[in-house]
From TrEMBL:
One of its GO terms (molecular function) is manganese ion transmembrane transporter activity. It catalyses: Fe(2+)(in) = Fe(2+)(out). It is found in: Vacuole membrane. CDD domains: Nodulin-21. It comes from the Eukaryota. InterPro entries: Ccc1_fam. Vacuolar Fe(2+) uptake transporter. Keywords: Ion transport, Iron, Iron transport, Membrane, Transmembrane, Transmembrane helix, Transport, Vacuole. The chain crosses the membrane at residues 69-87, 128-152, 159-178, 190-211. Belongs to the CCC1 family. This is Vacuolar iron transporter.
Amino acid sequence: MDSNQDAKFSSHPVNDMERQMSLELKEKEFDYSKRSQWLRAAVLGANDGLVSTASLMMGIGAVKQDIKVMILTGFAGLVAGACSMAIGEFVSVYSQLDIEMAQMKREKERAVGIESIKGEKDGLPNPIQAAAASALAFSMGAMVPLLAASFIREYRVRMWVVAAAVSLALVVFGWLGAMLGRAPVARSSIRALIGGCLAMAITFGATKLIGSCGL
């Protein structure tokens, strides 16, 4: 009996050590929520660049078969969309920054330690970084349909290649965003693909309908 009790008690330090190691590993695990700010801007910007530029090109392609018109339309959409995304993200994140700074000021006035306030400033959102990431991601996404259409003269082939290239890119960006954020990969990719294809189809159909009416 005594030997069994001794064996049980001797196993306790081992179990305690295993639990301690497990806790340390969990503490060292990366907090993926910290990626949410720049990941949201990057994934949103890339998907917007893909969908909006491709839809714009598909829409103009529904009534104009000239490759130059399609490329110029896509390029204009790239520049306008990147600027819009950057400005929108800058204003949004700056508003968030103002709110957090005001909250920190109120805490300081309540005699919160100055050192803790300084430490919190390191985690504040960066409007310029968010705006730059959003504009860059939008531009990268918009380049996909532009490059896909640039070297194909035949109208029908060009339209199908643009649709296929954008669909593939939507799946890739959906997969990448899910992997970085540790989210369900298949669900994210399918959602991005269906949304992008619907946007292109609706824009193409609506523009084709209006163009056939002679407007």
